[in-house]
Amino acid sequence: MAISLYSPSSPAFPPPPPPPTPTPISWLTHMLLRTHNNPSQQNALPPNKTHEQPQDYTNTTLIPPKMFMEGADSLTMAKPLGASNKFRKRPAKLVLPEYCPGPEFSKLRKKMEIQEFHVQGRDYCLATKKGRRETLEDAYGVMLDICGDSKQAFFAVVDGHGGRDAADYVVEHLGKNIINALEKIAGEEEKAIESAIRRGHKRTDEEFLSQGVGSGACAASVLVKNGELHVANVGDCRVVLSRNGVATPLTKQHRLCREEERVRIEKSGGFVECKNGVWRVQGSLAVSRAIGDLHLKEWVISEPEIHRLPLTPDCEFLIMASDGLWDKVKDQEAVDEVMREMGDEKNNDEGMKACKMLMEMSFRRGNMDDVTVMLIQLQPFFISI
């Protein structure tokens, strides 16, 4: 259909009437909107044109609806009459990148997959189970046949906090640092061993702190040497001895419920605060001694308490465990459970069953922490005179 033309001077084409609305509107907008709603009016004349503004529309191209057109102040979208005055642009399509986990997350995921494991070695057995934390923070270390002597060994149970870094470092280095220190110390045997244990803890702590990592770890360890037990601990892991079926604790937990620990921290310029019934250093950590804990090192020391005990024929076994066990199971209870499971067998198969039973007993009683239980048979280390 051709577009009609008009001549302003022709009497057959009088000037168009004024626009029906008082508000001025662009002629192009008017034409497009009318055309969209009534196709029969495609030949309509453009409004707001006077005799002084002749215009040839022969080659005019109508812009389809929904195209951009020039408005008063900016480019707007033409829309049909009756449509909403509010116009929203469709948001751009969201393109998600392809999922590709990095190596750090892969390592963490492997740690998270560890729920429970058991170890059965010569003269010892162990059971570990993860609590509610995403990562198992308990660890253990064993060194047998030290210096080629089957009567010398080192055992450790480690409970990390604030991550697993400190626990892994302690397991790898504490025993080695103690043995290395022992080789360099001369003098009376008893004092040399105690000095070596203290030096080993101090060096392990200093080397880990130099890495700038903020996590920490509690550790209980036993050095068996020359028919004697040298038991050391920092934190709340504990060691219990069974002597003719009677439980004998060989360590004390370093918690703020101990008055001497609170006094030491306060004298060094720190403070202790009780939160939800638990005393904490600087209102944060529930143990007063540990390896690591860079941000609390001024008050949380790594100096161990050491207990020396000669092995005698009535010494049967040791139970070494993290606080996940001892918070729910009493010392004598644990010894009785081991005696009941082992009976007269006294072998590692029965010992493993006992470790599992103790571990499950803790969880049945509401424990939500990681649990590690190590059982050590002492008869192989006894030296007869």
TrEMBL record:
It comes from Cucumis sativus. Its cofactor is Mg(2+); Mn(2+). Keywords: Hydrolase, Magnesium, Manganese, Metal-binding. Transmembrane segments: none annotated. The keyword Transcription does not apply. SMART domains: PP2C_SIG, PP2Cc. This is PPM-type phosphatase domain-containing protein. GO terms for molecular function: metal ion binding; protein serine/threonine phosphatase activity. GO terms for biological process: signal transduction. InterPro entries: PP2C, PPM-type-like_dom_sf, PPM-type_phosphatase-like_dom. Residues 11-23 have a biased composition (Pro residues). Gene3D superfamilies: PPM-type phosphatase domain. Residues 1-24, 37-56 are annotated as: Disordered. Pfam families: PP2C. It comes from the Eukaryota. Residues 123-378 form the PPM-type phosphatase domain. The keyword Glycoprotein does not apply.
